[in-house]
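Intended use. Records like the one below are meant for learning the mapping from a protein sequence to its folded structure. Do not use them to infer anything beyond what is encoded.
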Amino acid sequence: MRKRYTNLDPVTLLTWIALVVVGLSAIYSATHGPSSEFYQFNPRQNFGNQITWLGICLAGMAVALLLPVRFFQQMAFPVYGGTLLLLVAALLFGREVNGAKSWLYIGPMSLQVSELAKVGTVLAVAQVVGMRRPKTMDLRFAFILVGIIMLPASLIILQNDTGTALVFFGLVPIVLFWSGLDLNLLLLMIAPAVAGYFAIVSMPTAILFVVLFVGFMWWRTRDRRISMVSALMTGGVVALANVAITMVLSDYQVQRILSFTDPGAEQFRQNVGFHQVNSMAAIGSGGWFGKGFLQGTQTQGGYVFEQSTDFVFSVIGEEWGFLGSVVVLFLFAVLLIRLLQLGANMKHPFGVLIAAGASGIYLVHIFINIGMATSLLPVIGIPLPFISYGGSALLANSALLAIVLSLHLRRDDFSIYGY
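Structure written out for the chain above:
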């Protein structure tokens, strides 16, 4: 037993602890300084709640490290089904918070079930890939994996939580790539999303991207059909985005979408762009070394809303400066790379997909959250893993991490279960 636990990866564990400590300090700064006077509720409870959830996560991680590989494989589908039932229950009986009906209240405890659904979805996808015989990827199998991911995503969209649903959409190409999908098909899946982003930012850039992508696919494959599909998919998304912005969506929806392109503009600054303007001001004012703990003027002045959740990165940027922000990004990079290394060490599709799925979820969260704080992306309400306030998110993210560590701990047991 003692020899087995020498396989516990200290790099991943220490990186997780470092990120959690960063999060606790940022939450404390955002809720215990002078800015707390500007809130309609007592934000000081956020720090205490996060400590409580951290205790729950520590206990859960300890239990997960004791469980055998077979347990996670056998419980993959039941956990997935249970999270689907929780999503339906939240849709029918949940309480609406910030416009999204994705919360279930069990006594004094509240759960954002869409966060827990990420764990169930990754487990289910990994189990399906692990059970695949023969171990080849085709379009039929790809559609099965996409269906497993899209089912909870559809329920979350019905809950009006589009931001969380985007995480599931981002998980699709990551899962298909690690499952062995042909690279050309994977590029065809990713390119329309990139074209849509450029269509919002700059239509000439979007058109240029379509031309370059079609040319690249022709150079790569020399297949006229693939080139035509490339043109239809990317060009179609650009055309649909233009029609939606100019003819379909309401003015408020268009402003929410376009505000990140220039949040300081007159038409955005006083409404949908207000948060991003102040977030960028906070990050920019931090300079190289930051203003110091509890010393951020934007943070302590209450100028940035949701600063312990969606805009927690602005606290780090203002109080710890550019160097502090780089350290946080470095910690995330270490965590993501290390998780992929652990997955590769397991050499079993179930373990590989769990590690890749966890890394993919973290990566999408990091990219979108920091993109919101720096005005590279619209504000869609995505927390920063392990740092933003939120017990359900901390629990779900820590659960994924604990499962990876537990599977890696017993990676030699995989051969017993028929790889």
